[in-house]
């Protein structure tokens, strides 16, 4: 039976000035860490930029094509794996929320639109000209990380921030992320949901915790996420169930209990209603 792990940054033997930051070329990363091709999760943020090669990248059960110019941004806890061609080249960066937020102080990593929500699309495609403009920042990051010059951490962190700014600009063009007064409430709702979805499944609970009516919370969810509050809660439960089903050491009954369902049959019906397959059939298909 195979268990799909959650890796922390230290697993990757950071040689950075900060143990919460890892920077590498894709070729060297895959040579040193071949195990990352299997499905797994991370306890940190992941940023990858592909400059050559092809393949696919599956993130939380959605599959994306890998091509030159592909950038992927992943949040802690997301399950992913890839199948890549032998000629793949690019860059991979791992970092914790703490290393970023402590350095910059007044702004946090979660302020970037692509990390704003668990529902944010993790893929951004840069065309040839845009990739060419982005490449020097990554190359400089590798050179700086390998060197030992004065103010090394300052340059690394500022290069990383510039990369985030360039990605954010492209992301806003691609997905038309709009600043909206509802975004604050959505963020508060998702944080509450992340803490409570295993125990609290009623939409009214979250509305109450946010000190707004359920009607208003539904309006916010529909405006920003194009879903009802109940849909958002359901999607989060189903996502976690899928992640847990990838761990073959847990029985379906244990997963149901861990997600707050004492009735295994009800959980199985709930899962099938929202995915069209039973939990067991989903597990077998993977």
UniProtKB/TrEMBL annotation:
Keyword DNA-binding: yes
Domain HTH araC/xylS-type, residue spans: 187-285
Pfam name, any one: AraC_binding
MF terms (GO), sorted A to Z: DNA-binding transcription factor activity; sequence-specific DNA binding
PROSITE patterns: HTH_ARAC_FAMILY_2
Keyword Magnesium: no
SMART domains cross-referenced by the UniProt entry: HTH_ARAC
InterPro entries: AraC-bd, Homeodomain-like_sf, HTH-like, HTH_AraC, RmlC-like_jellyroll, Tscrpt_reg_AraC-type_HTH
Name of the protein this chain belongs to: AraC-like DNA-binding protein
Keywords: DNA-binding, Transcription, Transcription regulation
């Amino acid at each position: 039976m195979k268990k799909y792990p959650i890796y922390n940054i230290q697993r990757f033997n950071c040689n950075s000035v900060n143990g919460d930051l890892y920077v590498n070329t894709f070729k060297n990363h895959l040579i040193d860490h071949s195990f990352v091709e299997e499905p797994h999760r991370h306890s940190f943020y992941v940023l990858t930029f592909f400059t050559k090669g092809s393949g696919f990248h599956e993130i939380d059960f959605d599959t994306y094509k890998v091509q030159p110019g592909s950038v992927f941004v992943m949040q802690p806890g997301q399950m992913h794996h890839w199948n890549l061609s032998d000629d793949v080249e690019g860059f991979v960066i791992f970092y914790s929320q703490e290393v970023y937020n402590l350095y910059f102080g007044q702004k946090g990593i979660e302020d970037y639109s692509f990390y704003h929500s668990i529902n944010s699309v993790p893929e951004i495609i840069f065309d040839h000209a845009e990739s060419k403009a982005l490449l020097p920042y990554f190359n400089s990051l590798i050179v700086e990380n390998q060197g030992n010059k004065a103010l090394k951490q300052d340059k690394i962190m500022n290069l990383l921030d510039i990369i985030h700014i360039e990605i954010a600009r492209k992301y806003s063009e691609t997905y038309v992320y709009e600043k909206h007064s509802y975004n604050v409430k959505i963020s508060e709702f998702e944080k509450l949901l992340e803490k409570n979805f295993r125990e609290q499944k009623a939409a009214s609970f979250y509305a109450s915790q946010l000190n707004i009516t359920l009607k208003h919370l539904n309006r916010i969810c529909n405006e920003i996420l194009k879903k009802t509050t109940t849909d958002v809660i359901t999607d989060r439960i189903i996502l976690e169930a899928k992640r847990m089903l990838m761990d073959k050491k847990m029985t379906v009954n244990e997963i149901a209990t861990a997600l707050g369902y004492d009735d295994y049959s009800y959980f199985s019906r709930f899962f099938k209603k929202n995915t069209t397959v039973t939990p067991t059939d989903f597990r077998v298909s993977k």
